[in-house]
Amino acid sequence: MALNHFISYASFLLILAVMVVTVSAEPEYKKPKLEKENLLSTIVGIQGLVYCKSGPKVTPLEGSVARITCDAVDEYGFETAPITILSDATDAKGYFLATISPFEIQNKKKLTQCKAFLELSPLDSCNVLTDANNGISGALLTSYHLLHEKNMKLFTVGPFICASESKPVDNGY
């Protein structure tokens, strides 16, 4: 009888040892640390101006579009595919506004960093996109005004500049 207890006890210890080795052999996944504040706790608004520069003359560019691209992480903190939206066309004063609401972000993603780009100009006579104020390389959204009445974080970029010809455009336009 004692031998049966010994064999049962030894079998139990062997099974337990195999389970411990199996569990410890699996890779350990660590959640990455997010250093930046999540941008999307409310509605995010991005506003800016777009101008046409023809020689020394600078005028508002109606019908231009900006693109907003944001890096995102999933609910576990892992990077996902970027999220991109387009602004509405600029008005007669060259003003655009793009918004991202929490309802537009799917699969529990959180935005971590966003950039605004000059996307297109509707005018053949002023269709050369420039990197003035990072219009081509991307203007990083860094500081915002909190609009409590609209529940919005409002970022401002630009002004962005389109030119009538391919010459370097000074950031001071």
Automatic annotation (TrEMBL):
Residues 1-25 form the signal peptide. The keyword Transmembrane does not apply. Keywords: Signal. One of its GO terms (cellular component) is cell periphery. The keyword Signal applies. This is Pollen allergen Ole e 1 family.
